[in-house]
Amino acid sequence: MAFALGNVESGALLERLRAFWFPLGEDSARVIRAIRTKEKGFMRMSPEAHWFPFTAEQVIHSTCSSFRWEARLDPGKLTSPSVIDAYAEGHGQITVKLGVISVRKVTGAEVDKGEMQRYLSSIILFPPILLNHPALECVATGPLHLRLRDRNDETGAAVDLEISEQGCPLVCRADRPRMVGKQAVVTPWSATCSDFYVRQGMRLPGNAEALWHLPQGSFSYYRSEIISYEAVD
Known about the structure:
Elements: E1 2-3, H1 8-21, H2 27-30, E2 34-43, E3 52-61, E4 67-73, E5 82-88, E6 91-98, E7 101-106, H3 109-121, H4 128-132, E8 136-142, E9 145-150, E10 159-163, E11 169-180, E12 183-194, E13 197-199, E14 202-204, E15 207-214, E16 217-232
């Protein structure tokens, strides 16, 4: 992890984050290379759409920009679809399946950028990224704001992280590609976490929410309870 040389503000903000995220010290977090989360929650596709339940598992890596989120929608139904959001080795994908059959798979430069932004924002779920990612760049853009990016990323993806005076991560913001039909529309986006508790020496959130900020108003499309965290090799 790096920050701009001579940027005292960046260093001070990072110290606040570390103090919040690692209240018992950083040693245990430095050896965690990946984590698996299990979650349940509700999603919807538009402000007018109904909420539908989902269950999901996600693996996030701390030493490289990589994650895989696999969700089952309407898990009580035999024919319910599954969704995969993933990013690895510079490329993202969004795949929808019915059983083992892929009914839609979206890839390309816009998906690469959007999924990289999703990975960067996952730092609020998995703070060892701050310690272990060799290409993570953190630059202060305001008194309580850090811009995060992967220096190896070629899409220009970035996420702005706002923190409190006490170092608590409040919100991640980005202009992310949003799929509207077959087109990607760059749209303001934000994600928040809440109900932090200490586990394995780290403060981890119990709930997460994501919103799209459309011209006609903002709407929440994802609300999740994180049921468990498990370190994986």
